[in-house]
């Protein structure tokens, strides 16, 4: 039998590293971080495409407990964010806990031993009292099934698996998709390719990117007086909290923002026909509002062509758009997003009833407070269902879940989870609590711009339910996850334990 640990953390992006730091701060050192790749970074390791950068200000897109006074730009690029995460791993002594090249193949709950059995590509079976899944929703790229794609003679890759060994210079390149990655890739590669064709299924709303270099004087001030960086972060957070009402309760208030976005198109695109095709027909905010000051100028260049309706078919080296347009290409880059509402890791988690999380979620992804799932004891996900944000930093949501994780472990300890004399113990959310939480979330979702704005987005699952975003402020979510409400959980004890019963439903309310 392999190693047994108190906690196994899956993934080493912001969520996984944040969980590891919090565990150490809670005095828990008996844990491992399982990472399928060879370094930390998560999405900021995997997404190394040209132009990759964050659309949340740097001082807000970082841990509150690990401020960085030396961010080089107001919106930092992938290289600097990845370096920041490496710095966090070093500063907080996380290296001894990291297990690289340990992709999780299967996690199975043992009802008798009350622990998780975990199989990884590392070769040994690991067991853990608690599993924290921090693989993230932007982990597994999604490439659409397009007739003839397998026979395309050129190069094909997804933006999150960029092939840096392939030289795009002088090539005819097709970019499929118009999401956050595509609008950064297009202006980055446009000057060096001979021909760039953008297959646009839906035009995005794009606002100017107010990016600039952070001066040396500012960085010196933040190092000398950390409170100045904290105040900067507080201001950035406050502005975004004030914006939430427009997204969640009063979408009509976004009309002014829409006017600004149309002006942004008009400034850069003089051709009225192209301008009309680049102007969305849905309410701004229904899809994520993108930030770029170079996207529209790039589309107006003579070596760029926009094809409406997306990519429909591939015939050899000829790409056929949904509108019938045919173009020749040497390479296809897919900026088509990720498996968000159908995360592949859910197929590898087998709960107390012997069925996978994917099967439980087949009718819709649900959880309790975005963290725990009915039928899966001592299992928690960082930024799970309905925790995404449309306008602010996901690091804020991650830190809220770290608070929940810390209290979850305290509750287990209080119930005797680490006391061998009292028997092993686990917590599992009641199905009624999960159902009630999600019904409340979905009722609040009905008025949001994401549900009423007239678009189809990756926020929605196959049934049209928004199982991705949080319909409130980050402060509300912080309050909702400050502590574990034991009334929402069942307490499970091992058979023959000092308390006597196999599954308790005692009055812990």
UniProtKB/TrEMBL annotation:
Signal peptide: none annotated. One of its GO terms (molecular function) is flavin adenine dinucleotide binding. Belongs to the FAD-binding monooxygenase family. PANTHER family: FAD_NAD(P)-BINDING DOMAIN-CONTAINING PROTEIN-RELATED, L-ORNITHINE N(5)-MONOOXYGENASE-RELATED. The keyword NADP applies. Its cofactor is FAD. The keyword Oxidoreductase applies. Keywords: FAD, Flavoprotein, Monooxygenase, NADP, Oxidoreductase. This is NAD(P)/FAD-dependent oxidoreductase.
């Amino acid at each position: 039998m392999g190693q047994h640990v108190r906690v196994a953390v899956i993934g080493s992006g912001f969520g996984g590293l944040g969980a590891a730091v919090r565990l150490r701060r809670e005095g828990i050192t008996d844990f491992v971080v399982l990472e399928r790749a060879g370094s930390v970074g998560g999405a900021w390791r995997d997404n190394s495409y040209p132009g990759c950068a964050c659309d949340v200000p740097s001082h807000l897109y970082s841990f509150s407990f690990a401020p960085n006074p030396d961010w080089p730009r107001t919106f930092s690029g992938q290289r600097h964010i990845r370096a920041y995460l490496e710095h966090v791993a070093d500063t907080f002594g996380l290296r001894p806990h990291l297990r690289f090249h340990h992709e999780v193949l299967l996690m199975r709950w043992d009802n008798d031993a009350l622990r998780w059995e975990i199989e990884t590509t590392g070769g040994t079976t690991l067991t853990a009292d608690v599993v924290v899944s921090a693989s993230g929703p932007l982990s597994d790229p999604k490439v659409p099934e397009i007739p003839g794609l397998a026979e395309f003679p050129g190069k094909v890759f997804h933006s999150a698996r960029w092939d840096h060994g392939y030289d795009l210079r002088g090539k005819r390149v097709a970019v499929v998709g118009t999401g956050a990655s595509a609008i950064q890739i297009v202006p980055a590669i446009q000057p060096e390719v001979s021909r760039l064709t953008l297959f646009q299924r839906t035009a995005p709303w794009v606002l100017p990117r107010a990016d600039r270099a952070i001066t040396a004087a500012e960085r010196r001030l933040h190092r000398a007086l950390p409170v100045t960086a904290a105040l900067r972060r507080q201001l950035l957070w406050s502005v975004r909290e004030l914006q939430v009402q427009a997204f969640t309760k009063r979408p009509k208030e976004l009309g002014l923002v829409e006017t600004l976005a149309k002006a942004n198109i008009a400034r850069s695109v003089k051709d009225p026909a192209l301008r009309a095709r680049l102007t969305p027909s849905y309410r701004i905010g229904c899809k994520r509002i993108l930030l770029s000051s170079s996207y529209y100028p790039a589309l107006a260049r003579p070596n760029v062509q926009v094809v409406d309706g997306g990519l429909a078919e591939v015939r050899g080296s000829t790409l056929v758009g949904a509108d019938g347009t045919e173009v020749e290409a040497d390479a296809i880059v897919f900026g088509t997003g990720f498996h968000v509402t159908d995360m592949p890791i859910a197929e590898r988690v087998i709960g107390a009833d012997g069925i996978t999380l994917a099967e439980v979620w087949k009718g819709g992804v649900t959880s309790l407070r975005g963290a725990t799932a009915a039928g899966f004891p001592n299992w928690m996900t960082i930024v799970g269902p309905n925790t995404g944000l449309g306008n602010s930093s996901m690091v804020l949501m991650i830190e809220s879940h770290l608070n929940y994780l810390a209290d979850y472990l305290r509750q287990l300890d209080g119930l005797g989870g680490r006391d061998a004399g009292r028997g092993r113990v686990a917590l599992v959310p009641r199905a009624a609590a999960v159902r009630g939480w999600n019904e409340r979330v979905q009722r609040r979702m009905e008025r949001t711009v994401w549900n009423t704005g007239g678009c189809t987005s990756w926020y929605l699952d196959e049934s049209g339910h928004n199982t991705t975003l949080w319909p409130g402020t980050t402060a509300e979510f912080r309050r909702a996850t400050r502590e574990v409400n034991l009334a929402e959980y069942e307490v499970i004890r091992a058979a023959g334990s000092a308390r006597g019963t196999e599954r308790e439903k005692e009055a812990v309310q």
